[in-house]
Design brief:
This protein is of the alpha+beta class. The chain is built from two helices and nine strands; from the N terminus they run αβαββββββββ.
Length: 155
């Protein structure tokens, strides 16, 4: 029987654990300094909870910003709940960690991007594809650094 280590899923779990730890710290202590988050998530995820009008307006994916005003941040094992303001209308959301596509803190140029198996075809989930010219260096975006492990892949 052949057994392999599933590095893609292990990396997903570790990165989502990092997000959970950061959000728990924010829930306990508030957002420090100029830190703020752009969180893009799959609005069609079966466990995502959001108002129907938001799901209709953002079919597929939605980016929320945690910065100046948020309320009721509750961090759980599988996801987090938060109330955000949409045009002076507070709306509660529940975002499962598995639904998160990107997590960016532009104040420190940090970012994570999760790719589904469909996005990367035969590539391992959670690892970003880069062009061959930048194979050994982390991908830089205007949103911050994106964690990439391409240089560790076997050819």
């Amino acid at each position: 029987m052949s057994r392999e280590i599933d590095y893609g899923n292990l990396m997903h779990t570790a990165m989502r654990g990092l997000i959970r730890t950061v959000l728990q710290d924010v829930a306990d202590q508030g957002l420090p300094g100029s830190h703020h988050f752009f969180i893009t998530f799959d609005t069609n995820h079966p466990d995502a909870q959001l108002a129907d009008w938001l799901r209709d307006r953002y079919p597929g994916a939605m980016t929320v910003v945690m910065q100046h005003w948020y309320d009721d941040l509750e961090v759980g094992e599988d996801g987090f709940g938060i109330t955000l303001n949409f045009g002076d209308a507070p709306e509660p959301l529940y975002i499962p960690y598995d639904a998160i596509e990107t997590f960016v803190d532009p104040s420190v140029e940090f970012g994570l991007r999760f790719e589904s198996a469909e996005d990367g075809d035969d590539e391992m989930p959670g690892l970003d594809e880069e062009d061959d010219s930048a194979e050994d260096e982390p991908q830089k975006t205007t949103d911050g650094d994106v964690v990439s492990l391409d240089s560790f892949r076997k050819p």
